[in-house]
Every structure is written in C-alpha cells, then in structure tokens.
Design goal:
This protein is mainly α and 172 residues long. The chain folds into 2 domains: 15-51; 55-169, Up-down Bundle (Receptor-associated Protein), CATH 1.20.81. Helices cover 69% and strands 0% of the residues. The longest helix is centred in the middle third of the chain and has 37 residues, at 88-124.
Length: 172
C-alpha cells in the first residue's frame, strides 16, 4: 500500500491514465466509485468498505480519535488535570490510541509487503530461482505475516481495552 492510500476516499480506485488498454475497466471503476460514493452518503459505508471491514475500521477509528483529540472540550474526571485545569491527559490518551493503530498500519506496509513482493518476484521469474528458493521466500513471507498478525492482535487488544473502558466518554 502506498502512503497516500485511504480506503475512505470515494475516488480511491480512480481512472488510471497509465493503462489506456484497460479503458473499459477504467470506465467501469469510475461508475463503481460513483455507486460507492452514493452508498457512503446514504448508509455511511459502502460495499468496498465491507469487503475490507478490518482495514476500514482501523482508518475510521484512528482518524476519529485524532479528530476528537483536536476538538475535545471536556474529558472524563479521571483524565482531567485539576492542577492545570486541562484536558491534556485525555487528549494524550486519545492520541496514543490513534498512534497504536497507526503503528500497525505502517508496520504492515514495511514488513509484510516487502516479503510479499520478494516472493511474488521469485514466483514470476521462476527460471532465475530454484523451487527451494521460492519456497524459502514463501515461508519468510508467511513468517513475517504471522509475526505481524500477532503484533497487530496485541495492538488491537490495547485499542479494544481503551474502547471498553472509555466508550461512554467518546464525545466532544
């Protein structure tokens, strides 16, 4: 995934000018994006979001927690600093939770994608690699993916613990 990837963007799969031979697919994707935009406007989500609900929720949760931190006018009593008359501890907790989600998104780009690309390259260029090398790259990708999934699970547990404890205070 690129740094600019945003599953909430209505035009995420926009027309690709670099692929003119696929003009029919470009037109089809254009109208599909209009359909997705309509679904988001009417329901608040679209079919594309459901197909990758885990990723969609990561982006939505991260972005809404950051926005809440920026616009918060109050805080739970436990997170209000009486001495400084400040909600900074609450804002810090919101930002820390958003950073926790963001770390898992960045980690996925850097580790799993690199291992996957190496494996895909070897698979596509079989004449340059032995089957043992291809299997080694596949196993390396699977290990990286498993490690990432385990770390992601820990991060999600932190986020879920936050939501479990503070869900009644997520207001502006």
């Amino acid at each position: 995934m690129s740094k600019d990837f945003n599953p909430l963007s209505v035009w995420h799969y926009g027309i690709h000018s670099h692929a003119p031979r696929f003009w029919w697919n470009n037109i089809k994707m254009f109208f599909q994006n209009i359909c997705f935009a309509w679904q988001r406007a009417m329901k608040g989500y679209c079919d594309h979001d459901i197909w990758g609900l885990d990723e969609y929720l990561r982006y939505v949760t991260r972005d809404t927690l950051r926005r809440l931190s920026e616009t918060a006018h109050g805080a739970p009593v436990e997170k209000f600093d009486d001495e400084k008359n400040s909600i900074k501890p609450w804002q810090d907790l919101l930002n820390d939770t958003a950073d926790c989600i963001d770390a898992s998104l960045k980690e996925e780009d850097e580790t799993v994608d690199v291992a996957w690309k190496k494996y895909e390259y070897a698979k596509d260029h079989k004449k340059n690699f032995t089957s043992q090398q291809i299997n080694f790259l596949r196993d390396a990708w699977m290990r990286k993916n498993k490690e990432f999934e385990d770390r992601k699970e820990e991060e999600y547990q932190k986020v879920l613990d936050f939501l479990r404890e503070w869900h009644g205070y997520l207001w502006d």
